[in-house]
Amino acid sequence: MKHKFILFFAMSFFLGSVVFGQMYQSEMGDSPNNSPDNNNSTSSYTVSLLANGSTTYYINTAGSGACGHPGIDDTYDCASDGGPAMDLGTFTDINQTGSQLSSMDLVIYGACSGDVEFFLNGVSIASGNVTGPICGCISIASDPFNPQNYTVTITPTIQAAFIVGGLNTLSVVVTNSEFGIQCFYGADVTLATGPSVPLSNWALGIGLLLISGFIVVRYRRRLA
Questions:
Q1: What are phi and psi of 140, to 5 degrees?
Q2: Contacts of 18 (CB under 8 A, 6+ apart)
Q3: Strands 148-152 and 75-80
Q4: Class for domain 39-198, per CATH?
Q5: Is residue 186 within 8 Å of 71, Cβ to Cβ?
Q6: Cα–Cα distance measured from residue 64 to residue 77, given in angstroms and rounded to the nearest whole number
Q7: Cα–Cα dist 1/212, whole Å
Q8: Across the chain, which distance is largest between two alpha carbons, in Å?
Q9: Which residues contact 64 (CB under 8 A, 6 or more apart)?
Q10: Predicted model pTM
Q11: pLDDT per position in the chain (224 positions), as tens?
């Protein structure tokens, strides 16, 4: 009776892992719906590979405002309080397709005071409150409130939204702004990816191991 229970458990584990794996792949797989709807941004960016295996994309906004300062604060763009999401910029991920997002940190260069919420391809990834002395032209080096740092808590929804090896859009929605707008010079997006291994693979392996062990035990008992 004991051995029959073990075999039943192993087979249930095996079949359950196969079903779960199909559901997982359906949720996490690449989908055309993850592609940004609006990629008209003319923002520029540079890429840096870090020693720990992460990649940083340095995004410069493509705003019409020009501050005359060299570097990332040379131009800026402003989002209206309570308005639709404004694109901070786009970048094409250089990681190998087939992997998935494992970590992400944002460094935001902006001005003005208010609440912010950041989106990756339309999916919310981080939010917070920004304090700034003025809106518009100000050297980042002279702004004590710049930059603002955010660590993204990676979820399956965010992983599904991120396009590994493809075009990604970082956008922002602002509310409760002191001057009715908030302005942004750019952002640094540092991320890492890892192999996309469904958890069901582990369940599959354990199920097969249990079945193999059961067969070995039964075979030895018959020989004895």
A1: -60, -35
A2: 200, 204
A3: unpaired
A4: mainly beta
A5: no
A6: 7
A7: 18
A8: 88
A9: 75, 77
A10: 0.69
A11: 555 545 454 555 444 544 344 333 323 232 222 233 333 456 789 999 998 889 999 999 887 777 777 678 888 899 999 999 999 999 999 998 889 999 999 999 988 899 999 999 999 999 999 887 777 777 777 777 888 999 999 999 999 999 999 999 999 999 999 889 998 989 999 999 998 755 544 454 555 555 665 565 565 666 66
Q: Pairing mode, if any, of strands 55-60 and 181-195?
A: antiparallel
State in Å, rounded, how far the first CA of the chain is from the last one.
Answer: 19
Q: What single DSSP character describes residue 32?
A: G
Domain boundaries, the chain: 39-198
Residue whose pair of structure tokens reads 């559901």 in the numeric block: 23
CA distance 17 to 198: 10
Tokens of 60: 């410069």
Q: What is the DSSP letter of 135?
A: S
Cα separation, 183 vs 82, in Å, equals 14
